[in-house]
Write a structure and sequence with these properties.
By secondary structure, the protein is α+β, with helices and mostly antiparallel strands. Helix content is about 15%, strand content about 45%. A 13-stranded antiparallel sheet has the order 6-5-4-3-2-1-13-12-11-10-9-8-7. The longest helix has 17 residues.
């Protein structure tokens, strides 16, 4: 029996067996962009991100200070010292974004919540699209950059913390992720097209090394002068 597009892209990214054997994916990350400038400006310091492969959890070191780290879970954000000792936490951060617009400032916990779920998503896609409760189906392809990019629409379960419940993922002829469309619900619901490039092989997994997320108009036409988020990953490893 022929596989689905999701089966094919998971295989291209390293395969289910390799992902099942992985406990976490780690990378150094530097990030910036208009959204962070508006919400919670940060220094361009390199941070080490460790994303769990099988639960929505991410560790960011350092964060909130040179002697602090952030331990993100889908329902809790904890600030710890570098040895993992408790400093402060907040549950239910997702609910605190109600009524936010693009210009509403973020608290440190809100910034940590956004960074935690976003980095987790970027380091674990497309494998998390196979998680129980995620609904996917193939959609019309995009013609972009002289290529045909096949598309998947996904609806995420409520237990996931993510940009929006419904999202679209587009894959190049090599079946690697090229573009990821969504709305940023916690920042007024603006539309975004997040481009993935410079894929690298990490212990048998294929992961994008760069992310560039641009604001889109209501028809998802990309506004190239509105770079909302940029992320450069390096020094990948798995556990």
């Amino acid at each position: 029996m022929m596989g689905t597009l999701l089966d094919d892209v998971v295989e291209a990214a390293g395969g289910r067996d390799r992902w099942t054997a992985t406990r976490s994916v780690s990378a150094d990350a530097v990030s910036g962009g208009e959204l962070l400038d508006r919400k919670a400006p940060q220094d361009p310091q390199t941070r080490r991100i460790t994303a769990s492969a099988h639960e929505q959890r991410a560790l960011t070191v350092p964060a909130g200070g040179p002697d602090r780290r952030v331990n993100f879970h889908s329902d809790r954000v904890a600030i710890e010292d570098l040895e993992g000792r408790f400093v402060a936490d907040q549950y239910g951060v997702e609910e605190t974004f109600e009524g936010h617009t693009l210009d509403t400032p973020w608290t440190p916990f809100q910034r940590a919540h956004f960074g935690g779920y976003a980095m987790w998503n970027y380091l674990t896609t497309p494998f998390t699209l196979t998680f129980p409760g995620v609904q996917t189906w193939e959609i019309e392809p995009l013609e972009e950059e002289g290529e045909t990019w096949r598309g998947l629409r996904a609806v995420m379960p409520s237990r996931f913390v993510t940009h929006s419940r419904a999202q679209e993922f587009y894959f190049g002829p090599d079946l690697l992720l090229r573009r990821h469309d969504y709305t940023v619900d916690i920042a007024g619901g603006f539309r975004a097209a997040n481009y993935a490039s410079e894929h690298v092989e990490v212990d048998g997994l294929i992961i994008p090394g760069k992310r560039r997320a641009y604001m889109c108009d209501k028809n998802y036409r990309v506004l190239r002068d509105r770079l909302m988020i940029w992320i450069d990953f390096s020094d990948f490893s798995t556990d």
